[in-house]
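Quiz preparation item.
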C-alpha cells in the first residue's frame, strides 16, 4: 500500500547525512507514484514533485533533522499549500444566506443538502430551509423530504410547479416571511454534462445571486471529477466544492487535482451516508491522506527511531570492543543537547554525572567539554591514551580551558569507558542509549 511504499522510499534516505540529488530523486519518484495512485493528475503530480525536489535541495540540512524527516515535511507543506493552506468558511451573510447546490446526478447533492442543513443548524446556529428544485423526478422531492425529516429541517417544495427558478424564488420569499436565515437549494443533475442542465443551473444562479454556489462531486470518479469540476466552473464560476464519498479508503487525490485545476477551495468533504458525515475541509489533513501516511508524525518518529537504533547498535559494538572514543562521546553530548532537558538526562550517561558534579548543569557546562574535545586531533579522539602532557597543554590552550579541566575530563572519560565495558551487556546498553534520547 501507499504507506509501505513511502516508508520504503524514506528508507533510501536513512543513513545519508544529507539530502542529495540522488536520494531526493528516488524518493520523489515514489511520492509521484503515490500521487498517481491517489488519482492525482499526472502533470500536477510531476510539477509537484519537481517543486518539492527544488525546495529540498535548496534547503540547508540541519544536523538535527534527518533527511527523510525533512522531505516528509516539505512534501506535506507543499501539498497543503497546493490545496489552499487554510480551511475556507462558508459565506453565510445576508438574510437569508442562499446556498445553491450544483453537480451531476448521483454526486450527492440531495444528501449533502441535508448534511449542510444539519451543519448550519448545529454548528452555526442557523435556521435553514431546504428547497426542492429537482422537478424532473417526484422521487427526488420525496428524497429531500426524508432527508429534511432526518435533520429536523423544513423542506419547501411544490410538485405543481415545473420551473425551478420560480420555486427557488418563492422559497427565498417564504424564508424571509418565516424567519429562516439560510436557504439550501437542491437541484437536478444529469448523468453527464449537457446543455439543458447547465442552462438550468446557470439561470438559477442568475436569479438567486447566492452567497455560495457549491459544486458537489463524487471523489470516487477520479479524473472525471476534475473534468466535471472544470466544466461546471466555466459555466458557473462557483465559490466552492464539496467532495463526497471520501469514506472508506477512497483517496483524496481528486481534492488536489480539482483545487489545482479550478483554483476554487474545497469547503467540505462528505464521508458517509449519515447526516453528520460532513467535515470541513482542512488541506493539512488531506495532505496526510493523499500521502497515505495516515499520521505523518508517527511515520517520521518511526523513521527516527530506526535511525537511532542503528546508531545505538554501532555504539554497542564499539563499547564491546572497548573502542568507545571521544567522537562517540561528543555525539552523545550533542544528542543530549538536542533534547534540551539536560539536567534530567545527564545522570543517565555513565560517568557523566560524576564528570559534571561540580558544575551547574546547563549548556555552558557542556560547551567546556565540547571545546576540549574539539581541540583534540582526530587521532587523539580515537585513541585518548596517546594524550600526554604536552598534548594536554595544547588542548587546554586551544579550548580556552585549563590543564586541570582537560585532566579531569580525560580521567572521567577513562572511568566511563571502564564502566561501559564492565556493563558489557549489550542489551542493557541499548536500553540505556535509548533512554538517553
Ligand atoms: P444527487 O443525485 O446528487 O442528489 O445524489 P444523492 O444525494 O441522491 O446521492 C447519491 C447516492 O450517493 C446516495 O445513495 C447517497 O446515499 C450516496 N452518498 C452521498 N454522499 C455520500 C457520501 O459522502 N458517502 C457515501 N458512502 N455515500 C454517499
Ligand atoms: Mg438529488
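Solution:
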Amino acid at each position: 500500500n501507499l504507506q509501505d511504499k513511502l516508508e520504503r522510499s524514506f528508507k533510501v534516505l536513512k543513513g545519508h547525512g544529507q539530502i542529495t540529488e540522488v536520494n531526493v530523486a528516488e524518493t520523489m519518484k515514489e511520492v509521484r507514484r503515490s500521487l498517481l495512485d491517489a488519482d492525482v493528475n499526472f502533470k500536477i503530480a510531476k510539477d509537484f514533485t519537481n517543486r518539492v525536489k527544488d525546495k529540498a535541495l535548496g534547503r540547508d540540512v540541519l544536523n538535527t533533522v534527518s533527511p527523510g524527516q525533512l522531505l516528509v515535511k516539505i512534501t506535506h507543506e507543499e501539498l497543503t499549500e497546493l490545496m489552499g493552506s487554510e480551511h475556507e468558511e462558508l459565506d453565510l451573510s445576508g438574510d437569508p444566506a442562499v446556498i445553491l447546490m450544483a453537480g451531476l446526478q448521483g454526486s450527492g447533492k440531495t444528501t449533502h443538502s441535508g448534511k449542510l442543513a444539519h451543519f448550519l443548524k448545529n454548528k452555526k446556529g442557523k435556521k435553514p430551509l431546504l428547497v426542492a428544485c429537482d422537478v424532473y423526478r417526484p422521487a427526488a422531492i420525496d428524497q429531500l423530504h426524508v432527508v429534511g425529516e432526518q435533520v429536523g429541517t423544513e423542506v419547501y417544495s411544490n410538485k405543481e410547479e415545473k420551473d425551478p427558478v420560480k420555486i427557488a424564488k418563492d422559497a427565498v420569499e417564504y424564508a424571509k416571511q418565516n424567519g429562516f436565515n439560510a436557504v439550501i437549494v437542491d437541484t437536478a443533475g444529469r448523468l453527464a454534462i449537457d446543455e439543458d442542465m447547465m442552462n438550468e443551473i446557470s439561470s438559477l444562479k442568475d436569479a438567486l445571486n447566492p452567497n455560495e454556489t457549491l459544486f458537489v462531486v463524487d471523489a470516487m470518479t477520479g479524473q472525471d471529477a476534475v473534468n466535471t469540476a472544470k466544466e461546471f466552473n466555466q459555466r458557473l464560476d462557483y465559490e466552492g466544492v464539496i467532495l463526497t464519498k471520501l469514506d472508506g479508503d477512497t483517496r483524496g487525490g481528486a481534492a488536489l487535482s480539482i483545487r489545482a485545476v479550478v483554483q476554487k477551495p474545497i469547503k467540505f468533504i462528505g464521508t458517509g451516508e449519515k447526516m453528520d458525515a460532513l467535515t470541513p475541509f482542512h488541506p493539512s489533513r488531506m495532505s496526510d491522506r493523499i500521502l497515505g501516511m495516515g499520521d505523518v508524525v508517527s511515520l517520521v518518529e518511526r523513521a527516527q527511531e530506526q535511525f537511532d537504533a542503528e546508531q545505538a547498535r554501532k555504539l554497542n559494538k564499539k563499547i564491546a570492543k572497548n573502542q568507545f572514543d571521544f567522537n562517540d562521546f561528543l555525539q552523545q553530548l550533542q544528542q543530549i543537547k538536542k533534547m534540551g532537558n539536560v539536567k534530567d538526562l545527564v545522570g543517565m550517561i555513565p560517568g557523566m554525572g560524576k564528570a559534571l558534579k561540580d558544575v551547574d548543569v546547563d549548556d555552558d557546562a557542556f560547551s567546556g567539554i565540547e571545546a576540549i574535545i574539539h581541540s583534540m586531533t582526530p587521532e587523539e579522539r580515537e585513541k585518548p591514551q596517546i594524550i600526554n602532557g604536552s598534548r594536554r597543554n595544547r588542548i587546554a590552550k586551544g579550548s580556552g580551558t585549563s590543564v586541570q579541566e582537560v585532566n579531569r575530563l580525560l580521567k572521567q572519560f577513562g572511568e566511563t569507558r571502564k564502566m561501559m565495558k564492565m556493563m558489557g551487556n549489550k542489551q542493557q546498553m541499548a536500553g540505556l542509549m535509548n533512554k538517553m534520547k
